[in-house]
Amino acid sequence: MANNVPVPTYESLDKIYDSSALAKQGPRYNALVEKFTSIYGRKPDFIARSPGRVNLIGEHIDYCGFGVLPMAIERDVIIAVATTDDDSKVRIANMNPKYEPREFDFEGKETIVTIDSTKHEWSNYFKCGYKGMLERADNLEKPKGMYLLMDGTVPAGSGLSSSAAVVCTSALATIEANKLPLSKQELTEIAIVAERNVGVNSGGMDQSASVFSEQQYALHVEFVPRLSTRLVRLPETQPPMAFVIANTLVTADKFVSGPRNYNLRVVETKMAALFLSKVLDLPSSDSLKEVFDSYAAAAGKDNSEVAKYDALLERIANIFPQDSSNGQGYSLEEVSDMTGLPVQTLKEKYMTRFPVETDYFRLVQRTHHVLTEARRVVEFVDVCSKAPANTLEVLGSIMNASQESCDKFFNCSCPEINQVCEIARQHGAYGARLTGAGWGGCTVMLTTESNVPTLIEAIKDGYYRQKFPELSQDQLDDAVLATKPGSGSAVFNGF
Prior knowledge:
Blueprint: E1 9-10, H1 22-40, E2 46-57, E3 69-84, E4 89-94, E5 102-105, H2 123-136, E6 145-152, H3 162-177, H4 184-194, H5 205-212, E7 217-222, E8 228-233, E9 241-247, H6 254-257, H7 262-279, H8 288-299, H9 305-315, H10 332-339, H11 343-350, H12 363-386, H13 391-408, H14 415-426, E10 431-435, E11 442-448, H15 452-467, H16 473-479, E12 480-483, E13 490-492
Parallel strand pairs: 1-13, 4-6
Antiparallel strand pairs: 2-3, 2-13, 3-6, 4-5, 7-8, 9-11, 9-12, 10-11
Helix pairs in contact: 2-3, 2-4, 3-4, 4-5, 7-12, 9-12, 12-13, 14-15
């Protein structure tokens, strides 16, 4: 798809949302404009909008270089904006009263604005987009002053990328306020880098899905040789497909659990790639995507993408040496022997920048998950393009296989995720899997439009009311929700 197109401006909400959402979104936008007017004594000039996202397939493979398949959801962040030439101050308020109003000023071209990433401050995410955008605006000496009111419906900390939605929306608001001629690609690239100002080292999937998505489409995001996106139309099925997202409400503190979970998985995939590139006599690499590409190229066969994965999986089926831990994994000394790198080199290269804690490195299991999951992304896209009569069953089986692999081979599921997925399958979900990093967070289920109410009620009864009986109705509605593939970033001025 063309990545250098501008972010669209719409005067009608039906260009942004599915028709089923208009009865809810119309009053929401009206309330935002009314509240803005009551706070600032004037109407906004425009509203900037960016959605959250859910990843349909492709878990823990983006940092290995493989493509993923997210889609935007209806839940989003909207910011009403008015500008002034009287000063360069930014005044930002939130529709949610628990987020107190903030004000800051432009600090000059060198600094733009100071962001204290040690403080968990809601306005920092707006500052990220603001700072990232103005750093790119070479010809802008002094930005417009801005009056802002934000409203967000992406549940924070749910794995649906609420932070990326805020950063993309704030960057878009800054673009539009200062009439900067930037494309979707530039907005995405700036938002990816900008979010790192609050300590989030993003790979780019979240921002790409938030900016580039369109209604009725998923987005195939690839990272090698550079970030690129391609729209994948989700097929029209009979009965019509729908997706339900359920947040387990289990959170994994990345600072506490990262050394044994996320950080460790990254290191294990890199060590596996080093070993495979060595034993397969390929150029040395710590990227499983580069190993796959090199092997496929060396094979020289004009096979389908799925067949190339099958060939590599078959080739490495018995290639890993026996470990000394009865299948638990390899010691660091064994990894050293396998890769030919000294223990100290492995520690310095892979275990110092981000802390890692483990007794064993499970290279066999991690390799199996990454390669089969990357294959599942290709399969999912292929099924969407061919739309066989049993599309729902086939896509569901791919999602179920992904969940099983995440649970058994990548060990990034948890009992609560497994429970929600099982309840979903028992109540009309064709497929159910974790989405996001795992170890808690969200699940995504494929079902039919007519079955959505039944499925949601079953999850509320079988999971939330059992495990979290104190939840209010509003909290329940936030925790489990239906969604369709939604549109990406846009500017709205139809008021």
